[in-house]
């Protein structure tokens, strides 16, 4: 008898708030799977002999194993499997671009819809109830006692540094994290909005690390209040630099210095880290706009636009110089934004901002663009047409990328940088040109994704552990595969 081809079940949809409701609040858009939904989605996994999905993950989560446990409804075993390589599963399940990583590599993607790996990872992390900090970090009941004589410092408190701290602390190594802002988490707290990543999730991970011996030093600015040499002088055997790429880029057009024109970094930091969205519960009044323009097409631009809608804007226009098909943001975020009422001004580029007699922005002049031939990366080049038009705005957000903040770099002689100003590292270990100084995340790659920063942190942490622990360092973790940073515009 001929074998009948297996009929592929459709993906299990994730429940979410209706667009008309969620655009008025900062609660999470998607509400998560139930156990029955998770088991049903896990059942779609073919448990391939060679799980290529794992190769697509920058931190090589054992996807086949954790989904196999979920197929049996065993959340505890699934969580333990994920924690073998991933320090922040509840975060990654929400903000990773799975569609171009693990899910993009899933064999089901060739014939239909890939397994919802990210949603299953999120469900597992949310559902698992840890009874101790060590169990939260590893899935195991016990971790080694912290050895104070083994001391490592991380400058910057974002996802790369949190990965280093989480990994090393579970091996008994003392880790100190120095963060410039008043909350640890980096882009997880100041950049990604509450409706995509609740701050309570980041706080839970940080609290577990604190209880496991990691010390967080807040309001310490790398290159000013603390330097790499200071940390070695204080007895650190290794230093990890994970300060991100927080220097905003601007358009360099007339009127960009007017009141009401913000970088995306400042706008999102005010709303997220300062909790301006919850004013007057928090005494950080927001800068409100009724006619808002956001310039850019990446995930940061989408976050800014959707935040402005929730802050009471009547109209939010996303200005992008290419077409919708070229936008580097996640498709899911774009679809959510359009459902919420985002207005697209595609194939347009700002040439000047206008203002009133008090220097407040009142409008922007846009030039229509047309796409030319593809460049070396395969993206069509936007060309000017000489056709202009104006649209009103009382708030503008510039989200066209970031660069390396020079504070720490200029205060660290001997730290080699590439032509773009980012730190040069050994790709296998994350070590810089300075012995026992490691770096990872956006300060090395430029603006990329949370999971790529975590992958870099894990590589560096493994090398640090090998040097400090010798034969006692973990030997059973396979080498990591690289990933491709998300496109920026």
Structural class based on helices, strands and sheet pairing:
alpha/beta
- Taken together, the total number of domains comes to 3
Average pLDDT for all residues: 92
Termini separation comes to 55 Å
- Would you tell me which CATH topology of the largest domain applies? FAD/NAD(P)-binding domain
| CATH architecture group name of the largest domain | 3-Layer(bba) Sandwich
Low-confidence stretches: 477-489
Rg to the nearest angstrom? Answer: 23 Å
Query: Helical content, roughly?
Result: 25-40%
Strand order of the largest sheet: 3-2-1-4-15
What's the CATH first level of the largest domain? Alpha Beta
Give the helix tally: 19
Strand content: 15-25%
Q: In CATH, what is the homologous superfamily of the largest domain?
A: FAD/NAD(P)-binding domain
Q: What's the total count of β strands?
A: 15
Strand count, sense and barrel status of the largest sheet are: 5 strands, parallel
Task: Label the overall shape.
Answer: globular
Structure report:
- With 489 residues, this protein is an alpha/beta fold.
- The protein folds into three domains: 19-129, Orthogonal Bundle (Fumarate Reductase Iron-sulfur Protein, Chain B, domain 2), CATH 1.10.1060.10; 136-246 and 403-472, FAD/NAD(P)-binding domain; 250-400, FAD/NAD(P)-binding domain (3-Layer(bba) Sandwich).
- The protein contains 19 helices and 15 strands.
- The chain has helices spanning 19-22, 35-42, 52-55, 63-71, 75-83, 89-95, 102-105, 117-127, 133-138, 159-169, 187-190, 199-211, 228-233, 264-272, 299-310, 331-339, 406-410, 442-445, 450-469; strands at residues 147-155, 173-179, 215-218, 238-241, 247-248, 261-263, 291-295, 315-320, 343-346, 348-355, 361-374, 380-392, 395-398, 402-403, 437-439.
- The strands form four sheets. It has a five-stranded parallel β-sheet. Strands 6-13-7-8-9 form a five-stranded parallel β-sheet. Strands 10-11-12 form a three-stranded antiparallel β-sheet, with no helix packed on it.
- Helix 2 (35-42) packs across helix 4 (63-71), helix 4 packs antiparallel against helix 5 and helix 10 runs parallel beside helix 19 (450-469).
């Amino acid at each position: 008898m001929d074998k009948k081809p297996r009929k592929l079940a459709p993906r299990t949809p994730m429940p979410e708030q209706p667009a008309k409701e969620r655009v008025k609040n900062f609660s999470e858009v998607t509400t998560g799977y139930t156990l029955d939904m998770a088991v049903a989605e896990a059942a779609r996994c073919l448990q391939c002999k060679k799980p290529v999905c794992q190769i697509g993950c920058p931190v090589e989560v054992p996807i086949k194993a954790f989904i196999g446990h979920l197929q049996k409804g065993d959340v505890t075993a699934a969580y333990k499997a994920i924690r073998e390589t991933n320090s922040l599963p509840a975060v990654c399940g929400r903000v990773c671009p799975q569609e171009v990583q693990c899910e993009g590599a899933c064999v089901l993607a060739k014939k239909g819809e890939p397994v919802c790996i990210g949603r299953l990872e999120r469900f597992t992390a949310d559902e698992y109830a840890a009874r101790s900090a060590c169990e939260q970090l590893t899935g195991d009941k016990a971790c080694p006692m912290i050895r104070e004589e083994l001391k490592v410092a991380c400058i910057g408190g974002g996802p790369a540094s949190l990965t280093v701290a989480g990994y090393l602390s579970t091996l008994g190594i003392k880790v100190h994290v120095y963060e410039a802002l008043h909350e640890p988490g980096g882009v997880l707290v100041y950049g990604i909005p509450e409706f995509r990543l609740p701050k309570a999730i980041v706080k839970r991970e940080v609290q577990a690390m604190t209880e496991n011996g990691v010390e967080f030093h807040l309001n310490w600015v790398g290159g000013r209040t603390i330097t790499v040499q200071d940390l070695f002088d204080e007895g650190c055997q290794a230093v990890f630099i994970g300060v991100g790429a927080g220097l905003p880029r601007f358009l360099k057009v007339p009127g960009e210095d007017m009141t009401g024109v913000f970088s995306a970094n400042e706008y999102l930091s005010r709303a997220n880290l300062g909790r301006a969205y919850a004013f007057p519960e928090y005494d950080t009044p927001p800068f409100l706009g009724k006619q808002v323009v956001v310039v850019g097409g990446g995930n940061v631009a989408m976050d800014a636009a959707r935040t402005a809608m929730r802050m009471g804007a009547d109209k939010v226009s996303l200005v992008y110089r290419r077409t919708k098909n070229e936008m580097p943001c996640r498709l899911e975020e774009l679809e959510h934004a359009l459902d919420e009422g985002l207005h697209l001004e595609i194939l347009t580029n700002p040439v000047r901002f206008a203002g009133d007699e008090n220097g407040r922005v009142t409008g922007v002049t846009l030039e229509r663009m047309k796409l030319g031939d593809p460049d070396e990366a395969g993206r069509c080049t936007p060309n000017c047409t000489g056709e202009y038009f104006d649209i009103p705005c009382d708030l503008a957000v510039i989200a066209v990328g970031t660069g390396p903040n020079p504070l720490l770099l200029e205060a660290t002689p001997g730290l080699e940088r590439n032509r773009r100003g980012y730190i040069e590292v050994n790709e296998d270990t994350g070590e810089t040109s300075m012995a026992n100084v490691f770096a990872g995340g956006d300060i090395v790659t430029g603006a990329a994704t949370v999971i790529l920063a975590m992958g870099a942190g894990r590589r560096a942490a493994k090398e640090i552990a090998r040097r400090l622990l010798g034969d006692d360092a973990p030997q059973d973790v396979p080498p990591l595969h690289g990933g491709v940073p998300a496109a920026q515009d």
